[in-house]
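Give me the fold.
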Amino acid sequence: MNVLIVYFSKFGNTQLVAEKIAETIVATNGKDGSVRVISSDQLVAVDLESADLVVMGTPTHQMNLPEAVRPAMDRLPQKVLQGKAVAAFDTSYKMSAFLARFTAAKKLNKKLRKLGGKQVVPPETFHVVDREGPLYQGELEHAQTWAGGIIGRLG
């Protein structure tokens, strides 16, 4: 299985989660395929061609996707993810239950599905201390468990 993990990270927290997800997938998936991790500003449609699974993550900025991520998503061709497995995550400070509905992962998941992707697991949030982090203790283990769940769902 070929996996592409795309992230945007302003303070480094989302990148740490993306790298832990990649490490977990490599450990679980063995030598079957490849795992690539790239920043969203490097993403071009050709990167997605050989991917069987696309995992994408961003921080939540003002209960939305960061402005810097939107151009990367907008320049992708319609249905570029047709038939591909997708999963979305974000990093965010802990919010009330009401506000937690407005995370970047949920909006990112919707965009990935609109591009033709097939959701493998629900969007996930990894929490940071305050607005800039660091990640709370245990969040990298949380990422490891979440990534293991993705591989488990894909068989």
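The chain has five helices and six strands.
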